[in-house]
Amino acid sequence: MAPLLTGKRFRPERYHYYPLLDSSNQQAALLAQQGADEGTVVVAEQQSQGRGRLGRPWSSPAGINLYCSLLLRPAIAARHAAQLTLVAGLALWHTAQEWGVQGCELKWPNDLLLQGRKAAGILTEMRAEGEKTQYVIVGIGVNLNGGRTDLPPELQAQAIHLAEALPAPIERSRFLAALLQQWETWYDRYQTSGFAPLATLWQQAARLPGRRVQIRLAEGSFAGEAVTLDADGCLLVKRGDGMLTRVVAGDVTLLGEG
Ligand code: BTN
Fold first, then answer.
1. What is the distance, to the nearest Å, from the Cα of residue 80 to the centroid of all Cα atoms in its chain?
2. Average pLDDT of 80-105?
3. pLDDT of residue 151
4. 99 and 53 within one domain
5. Residue 111's CB: how many other CB atoms inside 10 A?
6. Ligand 1 proximity of 95 Cβ (cutoff 6 Å)
7. What is the phi-psi region of residue 40: left when phi exceeds 0, alpha when psi lies from -120 to 50, beta otherwise?
8. Is residue 109 domain-resident?
9. How many domains does the chain divide into?
10. 88 within a domain of the structure (yes/no)
11. Structural domain containing residue 229
12. Do 214 and 198 share a structural domain?
């Protein structure tokens, strides 16, 4: 997979392709520790231990999907690093739009859904010293060209590939180049103005306000109505009793329209 890299961060000399990795996030972290620059991109054709959020595995067969990790060295406080997941979501959603995939939406904090099923996920990992961010790895896995039988049985009902909404397969290196270009745009906007101006755009791509959601937190679950994303990227949810809860980290299930 050899994308045409023309951005100011993502240059050919910072592009690392591997036929097989345990995890592209793992490899990107290794390169980061060896001093690699912001804009380093790691792509794996296949991952033996692809990882998702909350310790879940990420199914990573060869030949059909995209598994990539971006190394960033942003001058942001460590507590803001999770916002980069949301920035990546915007880049992904716009790439899918640009490709003509109809019916995509974001799900807080890290999913791209197509027809209500998961087509892509983002795993952001970081190293910090105190509040100072050393580096951030944004790992993006996109189901592109497979079909139902390419998914593990337990995911067949809840996952999907983007090309299932298109008449032809998606050329992976072109998709990656488009994604990196979108990333440049959204990351530049984020670095210039912070997350607050992006929050409205993000919630539009998630069709957020008014959605019924189930929130699973470490300390328990509750249902409510998604109200908005705040300027920090946290999800505000109104519970049945009218109380507003600010969700900083959690797992969301969409329950349908409110
Ligand atoms: C999730 O939805 O839980 C996040 C999934 C992230 C998967 C990608 S694939 C490329 C990168 N390498 C990994 O091991 N994980 C991320």
1. 15
2. 97
3. 94
4. yes
5. 22
6. no
7. beta
8. yes
9. 2
10. yes
11. 208-257
12. no
